[in-house]
Specification:
Blueprint lengths: L4 H10 L16 H16 L5 E9 L30 E7 L4 E7 L4 H14 L4 E6 L8 H7 L4 E5 L10 H12 L8 H15 L4 H7 L17
Parallel strand pairs: 1-4, 4-5
Antiparallel strand pairs: 1-2, 2-3
């Protein structure tokens, strides 16, 4: 049976198909390593003592450049978004404890080994927990001799995420909320106003949106399984 283009489209819709792009994922993502991490994380939570805490750590680098994203626009209306000439960045390290939605951030000129060492020291002063479990990725700034030496006498215990697994770090959702509120579809004429908006989010706005953060940020992790698209030849 032959179908016209519209007829084939109708058939696909009737049989539960939707027209969308495949999700981009890192080429070296390993679903099995993600499953192992989730099991280990659940075991850590189940055995966590009252005087221990878990923090998820990551860095974010907001850039002074307009980012256009999809939104509801009336049919026939063309919306525009101005762009800035310069692309200056800010650099923040952040730590998120899901228990109580505790968030600690620090701004740095760049997030390198020295910055992360400083951040770890400051994080240790933020909590009285006997053991501070830190979960973070495998970036060079997070794996170096300076940190190794510091951790030998620190209350911080490091747990590394599987490679290429931002979906297993809840603080990534905080960065998304930051972009939704301060970056997406917004134009800042000067870097000064952009910097003020970003810093204002961390210093003033986060405490006001705790309920939103609790609804959107959690550790209900899902493994990203490989399901590559197959093209007809």
């Amino acid at each position: 049976m032959k179908y016209s283009r519209s007829g084939m489209t109708d058939w696909l819709i009737q049989h539960g198909f939707v027209y969308k792009r495949p999700k981009k994922i890192p080429g070296k993502l390993d679903p099995e390593k993600q499953r192992i991490f989730i099991e280990q994380y659940r075991a850590l939570k189940e055995t966590l003592n009252p005087d221990e805490e878990i923090y998820f750590i990551d860095a974010v680098h907001p850039e002074h450049q307009s980012q256009a994203v999809c939104g509801w626009i009336k049919k026939g209306v063309q919306k525009t978004l101005q762009t800035s000439g310069k692309q200056l960045r800010l650099h923040f390290a952040g730590a998120l404890c899901l228990t109580g939605m505790k968030i600690f951030t620090e701004e740095y000129k760049t997030v390198d080994a020295d910055a992360m060492l400083d951040f770890f020291k400051k994080l240790e002063k933020q909590t009285e927990a006997r053991i501070i479990h830190v979960i973070l990725d495998n970036a060079r700034s997070n794996k170096n001799k300076k940190l190794e030496e510091f951790l030998m006498s620190s209350r911080i215990k490091v747990h590394y995420l599987p490679p290429y697994s931002p979906n297993l770090n809840p603080i990534e959702r905080l960065w998304k909320i930051l972009k939704e509120k301060k970056v997406y579809n917004r134009y800042y004429e000067t870097s000064v106003t952009f910097f003020q908006a970003i810093r204002g989010f961390f210093l003033e706005e986060i405490p006001k949106i705790t309920d939103i953060l609790k609804c959107r940020i959690n550790d209900k992790f899902q493994v990203v399984d490989l399901n590559p698209i197959k093209l007809a030849v």
